[in-house]
Amino acid sequence: MTRTMKVAAVAQPGAPLEIVEREVPRAGAGQVVVKVQACGICHSDSLTVDGTWPGIEYPRVPGHEIAGVIEEIGEGVVGWEAGQRVGVGWYGGHCGHCDRCRRGDLVLCENGMVPGVSYDGGYAEYVQVPAQTLARIPESLADVDAAPLLCAGITTFNALRNSGVRPGEVVAVLGLGGLGHLAVQYAAKLGFETVAIARGQEKGDYARELGAHHYIDSTAENVAERLTALGGAKIVLATVTSGKAMSDAFGGLAVDGKMMVLGIADSPIEINSAQAIMGRRSVQGWPSGVAADSEDTLAFSARSGVRPQIEVYPLEKAAEAYARMLSGQARFRVVLQP
Amino acid sequence: MTRTMKVAAVAQPGAPLEIVEREVPRAGAGQVVVKVQACGICHSDSLTVDGTWPGIEYPRVPGHEIAGVIEEIGEGVVGWEAGQRVGVGWYGGHCGHCDRCRRGDLVLCENGMVPGVSYDGGYAEYVQVPAQTLARIPESLADVDAAPLLCAGITTFNALRNSGVRPGEVVAVLGLGGLGHLAVQYAAKLGFETVAIARGQEKGDYARELGAHHYIDSTAENVAERLTALGGAKIVLATVTSGKAMSDAFGGLAVDGKMMVLGIADSPIEINSAQAIMGRRSVQGWPSGVAADSEDTLAFSARSGVRPQIEVYPLEKAAEAYARMLSGQARFRVVLQP
Amino acid sequence: MTRTMKVAAVAQPGAPLEIVEREVPRAGAGQVVVKVQACGICHSDSLTVDGTWPGIEYPRVPGHEIAGVIEEIGEGVVGWEAGQRVGVGWYGGHCGHCDRCRRGDLVLCENGMVPGVSYDGGYAEYVQVPAQTLARIPESLADVDAAPLLCAGITTFNALRNSGVRPGEVVAVLGLGGLGHLAVQYAAKLGFETVAIARGQEKGDYARELGAHHYIDSTAENVAERLTALGGAKIVLATVTSGKAMSDAFGGLAVDGKMMVLGIADSPIEINSAQAIMGRRSVQGWPSGVAADSEDTLAFSARSGVRPQIEVYPLEKAAEAYARMLSGQARFRVVLQP
Amino acid sequence: MTRTMKVAAVAQPGAPLEIVEREVPRAGAGQVVVKVQACGICHSDSLTVDGTWPGIEYPRVPGHEIAGVIEEIGEGVVGWEAGQRVGVGWYGGHCGHCDRCRRGDLVLCENGMVPGVSYDGGYAEYVQVPAQTLARIPESLADVDAAPLLCAGITTFNALRNSGVRPGEVVAVLGLGGLGHLAVQYAAKLGFETVAIARGQEKGDYARELGAHHYIDSTAENVAERLTALGGAKIVLATVTSGKAMSDAFGGLAVDGKMMVLGIADSPIEINSAQAIMGRRSVQGWPSGVAADSEDTLAFSARSGVRPQIEVYPLEKAAEAYARMLSGQARFRVVLQP
Ligand SMILES: [Zn+2]
Ligand SMILES: [Zn+2]
Ligand SMILES: [Zn+2]
Ligand SMILES: [Zn+2]
Ligand SMILES: [Zn+2]
Ligand SMILES: [Zn+2]
Ligand SMILES: [Zn+2]
Ligand SMILES: [Zn+2]
Prior knowledge:
The structure is a homotetramer of 338-residue chains.
Chain A: E1 4-10, E2 17-23, E3 31-41, H1 46-50, E4 66-73, E5 85-88, H2 99-102, E6 126-130, E7 135-136, H3 143-161, E8 170-174, H4 180-189, E9 193-198, H5 204-209, E10 214-217, H6 223-229, E11 233-238, H7 243-250, E12 253-261, E13 269-271, H8 273-277, E14 282-285, H9 291-304, E15 310-314, H10 318-327, E16 333-337
Parallel strand pairs in A: 8-9, 8-11, 9-10, 11-12, 12-14, 15-16
Antiparallel strand pairs in A: 1-2, 3-4, 3-6, 3-16, 4-5, 5-7
Helix pairs in contact in A: 3-4, 3-9
The structure holds zinc ion (8 copies).
One zinc ion is lined by residues 94-95, 98, 100-101, 109-111 of chain D.
């Protein structure tokens, strides 16, 4: 006898999210089935909904910010057991045999998979994922809070800790949305002198509530000049999609400062070579992280009290929730609950 | 007309600290005279009192944890003015022409000076120091609190931030004395998972008050095993003088973990090569820092609330205060006030 | 119909190497069978011969310096084909699910395997190994030359390139045996100012032939003093097994210098804390590398002309060849040819 | 009685270089007078000739690639003596009191001086410079060869060694002019797999003579694609002034690859964020180095045989030599000899 479940699927590129019935998957070799308790809606889910990611097979269930409980364990899976609370993020498995994998650089696997893109994701009551993708969720972290940390959280936390920044230095967060409102919390809880940069004066108070020591309204102030007046930012975490905003902030880096680029920009980032040379300034891209990085992110979040600000919708209202995310009005992450 | 001041001087190696009258120094070229508001007593002052540092000229006034106000500025000094609050630590000036100086490695200058050793130090109402040695003291930091941060504080803060540790990792502090009680605070305020290691169960509560998440009583527990059970320490800040205690803790390092050695040990540190190899573990020494590092230390301490626990004595009781420091009973730094 | 092959096996701990007939293995899932063309004899093979590595199942065929040709490919193996020239070293496969593996630190897998220890190794005409373990051998590199590079070569090359050394600095190689005579060549070909350190004056000429710019006879000279006179070594590659020799060399490190420990020492390495602190000097262990590291080692060796000095024996004389290695008289690596 | 000397001076911005008679300077405090044996002509000398560097006092003698012999030593100078062979490059002294200097970052001194810009430079028979600026010239290095190494040489050598590149990796040099023809030699002598990139097929043979393993003609081939086919460049040393050429090469970086920007570009460098993120690729500026860096550059050049290709002119023909440099036809550095 097979069990059925509800999922929110996209029938073809551009089609709406529809609730459909499916068989609950059975865990294949190396795989686990997770009972989904919460799944964040990420702007990247539009890659699946719109079909802009090449080679997606439809119908497809989006969702790569999954928090749940292990339901079933496939053959050959070691180290996990049914009932454990686990999360899955953008990293959806590596191949093990490409050059990147052979060097242990699992996050840049040339054949890397993404939940909700390469296989059905977390807009569902159950999801099947490779065991490699699992991150333990600490007891004190609620499912709806853990979900966005598995993509927006890890991306900022992991970029920051791998940026080469030294403890106590000045960290600026460019953008105060889904990623930025987490990045500001991480920077503050990690003891950095934290600068939030966003559009509009009204976000200043919120930034300070999140722990920012300084706020820059990029619509009214010269970002580079303000940062320079603060001594310059050793790290700018660029969480926006505006290439121009990134280019404008580059001049606000301190000597030896680095801009970490976390999101695909709508235009090239323009680097002034004199500014780069006369301060050994740099720009580097950073691609999220693997399951163990998520685990570290969740552990730190649990320990330090970092939490996303979320709006929760039932799975049945996936289409509405997705539209809410797209509207840019959500504060700041939308989460589905089956 | 010359002014006079009181100092606590050592007439010859091994002689007691005596209060004597001196002329207030006038600032020479490149020098400033500082009116001392507080001066910490450091165990290293025994190098002067006992004469174990080679080549000291006596009588000598000890003291290299100086907080005060600029009184007079010598010829050619740029960037400072009378009335500024400043501190001076172990770094007492560099030569500018040795190989280390030519490479910008000022703290390891081959002709480096130390206040209270190379010239008269801070057990005094006034002290003359090279302008290079000055660190700005933030307004919110009291003189008696700033003084110990200029040696015990900077040594731990600067070692930690230059250790290569990544934000959020496990940092263990070996020893809970003058350096250790500050190191624990820094580690905790910087968001590290902080482990304090000391002798005796009774210090556990205090360690937790300082922010430690874990406490290990090295008289009752196996330090390496306990650290390993916590996942291993990425950094061990070794603030003790026992070579054996350091050797014992080495096995508690995480993979890629590093022990930072901050103090001269009473015996060699013994490294187990298999433990080193099978985890890429390492041991490195760290020599305090220059004035700009002190400035960063003071700024972070002011911003985050890190403060030393001190016992204050008037300058007149320098001998008594020094004996108190030597007794090992002080909690944790003794500070003189002129 | 099954094929048979000759192997040199150890029947039980302490037993002699005996030539026995075996079935040629068939490649299991994820495995390949390699026709062995050459296999180096490493001192670590004594772990198998003497049974000092825990948990070895006997009879066991030693050998982890394998150069050969892919004979057969198992199910699920991607990226390899029969006829390719490949090598296998100390790294014999990782589990994929332990904490180290999840972080991409494959060489320190908690369940890591070693050819000739965990499964039958290269003292044989054919060997079955996990596909993960394979490194491509460049065309210009002979099998008998490639074999020792897969253990002695990669260990030194990989440690050196990951030591943090900057191009052109002073690199000292402590020991001039199997590892050391390769390390000297790598250091010289990589443009480092290369210092060889060994016992006896007579090795000086050979060291210079290998590319060393300086030679120190540790039986007649003070190693630390000589290194210091050369400006200090930024890196000491410690290829010896004498803990005392390593301890003696520590004082010859330059400021910011590091000793890389490559082999298990017969006694603890003793670190003088004052030397460590007053130069930020350090000691770190390094554990070889994975197949991709071997591939880089072989590629660089082929391109730059680095070759081991070897003595070749037929597989039938494995016992004699092993004794030769043990004698310490071989110059410098003994290689078996089936 | 005063001695006189010939210099080639610029009377005002835009004026021609004219040979005029001057008094030989006497060494002031902290200064030395150097008898010039050779002085390279650098494109940056146009900052003085054209007056595009702000605040230059005229008449001014250009020249910051000075090789000579110490003639006279000023008061307070330690560590140098008359008769020593010394060189001076772009770094012309630091202030000692700005924030950068206090942190030992002497090359980025906020009040840094440049010979031939801040004071009279090396187009002269004698020049007075701060003692800080002196680099020892190895015996085996001719003056005319040392001169260009003090600017074009150090800039490439120092950028390369501080780029974080690991020994043996792929290094690409973008541009094959004054800097590039030295960078290719350094990369090759340091054991890197070296790629030269320039305009036109005809430079390929020369690149290979300099040690390049690969040559890319950027007028006929897609630079990023060719580099990617070689596995990607871990480091691109960008020695050109074309922002477009740099932007085009960015896509040819390997995973974790970095472009080091050494020269002011004529337009912003455009970074594709997706390429940056999906390979952790980065761009960083690098500003030459101090006297000790020059000393290391000269020592390595002497030891390894790196030499500039030069055209030598007598000082009297400074105007002609300068025009030759400007023409872009010189191969590759023009050097004046008094
Ligand atoms: Zn996402
Ligand atoms: Zn892969
Ligand atoms: Zn002290
Ligand atoms: Zn010095
Ligand atoms: Zn071996
Ligand atoms: Zn493993
Ligand atoms: Zn120049
Ligand atoms: Zn300066």
